[in-house]
Amino acid sequence: MDTASSRRLERFTRSERALHWVHATAFCVLLVSGLCMYLPSLAEVVGRRPLLKTIHLYTALAWAIAILLVLLLGNRRPLRATLREVEYFDADDGLWLLGQRTPQGRLNAGQKLNTIVTAVFAILFSISGFFLWYGERDTTFQNPNALLLHDWLTYASLILFLGHLYLTLIFPKTRHSLSGMTRGWVREDWAARHHPKWVAAVETADDEPRRAAPR
Amino acid sequence: MGGEQTAAEQREYREPVSVQRQGSRLYGRLAFLGLLAGGASSLGWATRVSGYVSPFTSAISQMFGDLLPVGGWRIYTISGSMPIFYPDSYTLQIDGLVRRPRSFSYDELLALPRAHQVSTFHCVTGWTVKNVRWSGIRFRDLLDLVEPLPSATALRFVSLEVPYTDSLTLDQAQLHDVMLALEMDGQPLSRPHGSPARVVIPEMYGYKGVKWLTRIELVSHQPTGYWEGLGYDQNAWVGHSNGYG
Question: Does the pLDDT of residue B26 top 60, yes or no?
Answer without folding.
Answer: yes
